Amino acid sequence: MPHQPLTSDMLYRTSQLTKLDVSSTKHLEPLEEIVGQDRARQAVEFAMSIKEKGYNIYAVGQNGLGKRTMVMRYLSRHWQYTHPVYDWCYVANFQDSRVPKVLQMPAGRGLKLKKDLEKMMGRLGKSLQLAFDNEMYYSRADALKNRLTEMQEGALGELSQEAKLQSVSLSITTSGDYQFIALNGEEPHTEETFDALSQKEQEHFDQAIRDLEIQLRGLVRKLTEWEETYAEKQQKLDEEIATEAISHHMVKLIESYSDLPQVKKYLKEMQGDVLENLDIFLQESEEQAALAYAALDKKLPRRYQVNVLVAQEEEVPPVIVEDSPTYHNIFGYVENATYKGTVFTDFSLIRPGSIHRANGGVLLIDAVKVLERPYVWDGLKRALSSRKASLSSLEREVTLSGTISLEPEPIPLDVKIILFGDYHTYKLLQHYDAEFSELFRVTADFEDDMPRNEDSEMKYAMFISSICHDNNLLHCDPGAIGRIIEHSSRQSGDQDKLSLHSADIANLLRESNYQAKVSNANIIRASHVEKALASRDMRVSRLRDHVMEGFTTGTTLIDTKGKAVGQVNALSVLATNDFSFGAPNRITATTSFGDGAVLDIERSVELGGSIHSKGVMILTAYLSSLLGKQAKIPLTTRITFEQSYGGVDGDSASMAEFCAILSAISGVPLRQDLSITGSMNQFGQAQPIGGVNEKIEGFFDVCTIKGPKSTQGVIIPRSNVHNLMLRKDIIHAVEKGKFHIYAIDHVSEAIELFTGIPAGKPDSKGKFKTDTVLHKAAEKLDALRKKSSKA
Any idea which residues are catalytic in this one (predicted)? Predict the structure, then answer.
């Protein structure tokens, strides 16, 4: 019974949308969930419900599946977060300025503390100025000063009086030192007058001055003690005055934060520090005050600022997406400031990273970008293991220098990390990093496709509606919805599945929207989707046009009519990043006297890949099982892809190669108006291959170029029939009997289609029926064996 080609209804599955009862997506409820990703959604839901260490997520799948969109949608609409979120602030450590302290505050309180302190410091500066600039303070300070002066003058007066009794005066030099001078009456002795004195008188003056100097040294020690006592009393007076001024403002502030012991403790420490640094407010030292106020924002002493590192919204857990995961962007850094040529840094120059902003919530990062950036992956693992966000200087780690820097107190970390990546990166991390599986215990595996049925088509229509609503696009009528669903099925490579590459569908909708607007339409129709697809193909099909030009000009040799021995048309797929297409390849086989080997020229010149070589070995095994059971095949066969100058891989040409080899051995010619694709096993059974639509379309296009003929067609494995979603022009050609697609289960069926002769089966003795291809091959081999034995 002759092989019957597939009917046109088997080549394409039209979308019926039987459950769609609206006129456009405008009246269709948008789908809140990402369609078809229940497995991944449940994994995310599971991980987000566990607070223990290590339950972070690796979202694995190809780009364009909507991984980030699905996670963001789940977090914004369904994530029930029960833990409070906090503001994180850095403040000065008044005991050790190199180790700034962390304040953990309820959401919203951090900025409030900052503003409260700014207001209080503004008022405090004025209050202190007024407190130290009034008559009461001056009189008390003057009294202390006068008391000191009186004591100093009295003691010096007594010493001066005693000196005068011994004709010695006490004077002060220009440098401020005390000096004793012998007197000649009321005037000091000159050198001449002193030398004129007798030896006894000179010795008397020397002894008197030595005794007086001993008393003076004792007096100077007393004066120093009195000055220290005065300074202590003056400082005590200043502290009393300042305490009155500060307490007035601080008491209310401390009371307002009495529910936060950490903040309350800091405010009390700050009050003590203000008392120790009153000169900053009183501007006793202009340079010191200038540096203290060298702020980048407001005129507030830097040491009393509050650096609100992270300010969260109340009861809204943060969800942060880090698109540029550099070390500083993730873990923060400390800036340097310059003032009048002086470079300095302090806690107010600490800047947060995304891990700080996401603390208490979720941080989403691309896995490949993390691994590309130096030190980021190690830092991320360290933070997740210790559950602390430590802000360390990357420069110091890299250069191993001893540069003085800040060592801020680490922040307790409570964050979920979600990494987005592909399978290759996932396997690399699992294989090479032992900590990965401990820190990322949950894998959210995103599907590439979903089953196609009435319910899933309806969900897909709702998904299309959500894209139209979210992007403010024109809405789609049922025809456009159906065409997009059919395109999705084509993208999945299966009539019974729908592609879940949401990015591709969203882009198609945007391009269809553009075509509709160019046509001044108020709704997207199927024709607009077709134009968008055609426009997309035109933009990316330069390589296909270049390949097809070779067939047009005859540069690439191919026959689509007639018959030839040892020559068959195989099909292959060529692909760029965003486009794939099929094209036929001529495979030829030649034989010569030998030992039964099948030599793969592609492998010999290292153009053939390992999978292709495996396919050749499999067909060789099947050929040997048919023709070499009784005796060795006395031929060496060579096969090659003609005009192939690049690499060849894959086993989808193994059935074509077998047909070419059998034709070369038997001498039976093969039809050139047919092409074939499909792999085979050691029993000759046809196995499915990929890219079947592109391969069929490629041969159809070449047949159109070389001259169509009603007998032309393609042979495919029957297991590939469900993958068919062919172009409309091919379906029309099949309907009119101008092109044929044959589905086979065994390579013998392909032999029969190519030759018009039964392939033949071996009987119990290994013999074949006459008038079969295998019988003709066996006869020729037997003749060769007899000749070789006679020789």
Answer: 652, 695
Going by C-alpha positions, the residue among 546, 476, 536 that lies closest to residue 504 is 536
Of the candidates 538, 555, 537, 634, which has an alpha carbon nearest to the alpha carbon of residue 592? 634
Q: Exactly one of 114, 416, 695, 776 is catalytic; which is it?
A: 695
CA dihedral 374, 377, 381, 382 (to 10 degrees): 10
CA distance 429 to 437: 8
Q: Who contacts 55 (Cβ-Cβ below 8 Å, separation ≥6)?
A: 47, 416, 441, 442
**Contact present, 703 and 733 (Cβ < 8 Å):** no
Judge if 511 and 579 occupy the same domain.
Answer: no
Q: Which regions of the chain are under pLDDT 70?
A: 1-2, 129, 131-132, 137-138, 174-176, 282-300, 393-404, 606-607, 647, 789-791
- Coil, strand, or helix at residue 528? helix
d(CA 638, CA 625): 19
Q: Which residue, 521, 547, 573, sits at the end of a domain?
A: 547
Token pair, residue 81, equals: 């977060």
Amino acid type, 258: S
Instruction: Say if 776 falls within a structural domain.
Output: no
Q: How far apart are CA 523 and CA 516, in angstroms?
A: 7
Phi-psi region at 176: left, alpha or beta (left = phi > 0; alpha = psi -120 to 50): left
695 is catalytic: yes
Same domain assignment for residues 107 and 233: yes
- What are the pLDDT digits (tens) for 544-571? 999 999 999 999 999 999 999 999 999 9
pLDDT at 400: 55
Q: How far apart are CA 499 and CA 489, in angstroms?
A: 6
Boundaries of domain holding 49:
37-83+317-446
CA-CA distance, 429 to 221, in Å (whole number)? 75
Record the pTM: 0.78
Residue 652 among the catalytic residues: yes
Is 772 contained in some domain?
Answer: no
In what helix (H) or strand (E) does residue 545 lie, and over which residues does it extend?
helix 542-553
Q: What pLDDT is recorded for position 36?
A: 81
Residue from 392, 466, 572, 652 carrying the catalytic annotation: 652
The sheet that has 442-445: what strands, in order across it? 319-322, 362-366, 416-421, 57-60, 442-445
pLDDT at residue number 299: 57
> Are 680 and 687 a contacting pair, CB within 8 Å?
yes
Residues 541 and 633 in one domain: no
Reference 672, options 561, 518, 552, 523; nearest CA is 561
Calpha distance 108→159 (Å, rounded): 69
Asked if 54 and 441 touch (Cβ cutoff 8 Å), the reply is yes
In sequence order, which residues have a C-beta less than 8 Å from that of residue 5 and are 6 or more positions away?
713, 734, 740, 741, 742
Phi, psi of 490 (to 5 degrees): -65, -40
Beta bridge partners of 205: none
Domain match, 578 and 719 both = yes
pLDDT of residue 357: 92
In angstroms, the CA 791 to CA 781 distance is 15
Extract long-range pairs of 119-126: CB within 8 Å, 24+ residues apart.
120/249, 120/250, 120/253, 121/300, 121/301, 121/304, 122/300, 123/249, 124/245, 124/246, 124/249, 124/274, 124/281, 125/281
Structure tokens, 738: 């101008």
In a domain, 777, yes or no: no
Please tell me the total count of domains within the chain.
4
- Burial call 277-296: b when 16+ CB within 10 Å, e when fewer: bbebbbeeeeeebebbebee
Q: Which of 9, 28, 12 is nearest to 481 (CA)?
A: 28
Contact 503, 69 (CB under 8 A): no
Of 138, 292, 154, 296, the closest CA to residue 222 belongs to 154
Residue 780 lies in a domain: no
How confident is the model at residue 172, as a pLDDT? 72
What pLDDT is recorded for position 393?
64
**Residue 442 in 3-state DSSP?**
strand
Q: What would the pLDDT profile of 615-628 be if each residue is shown by its tens digit?
A: 788 888 888 888 88
Question: Which of 312, 335, 351 represents a domain boundary (last residue)?
Answer: 312
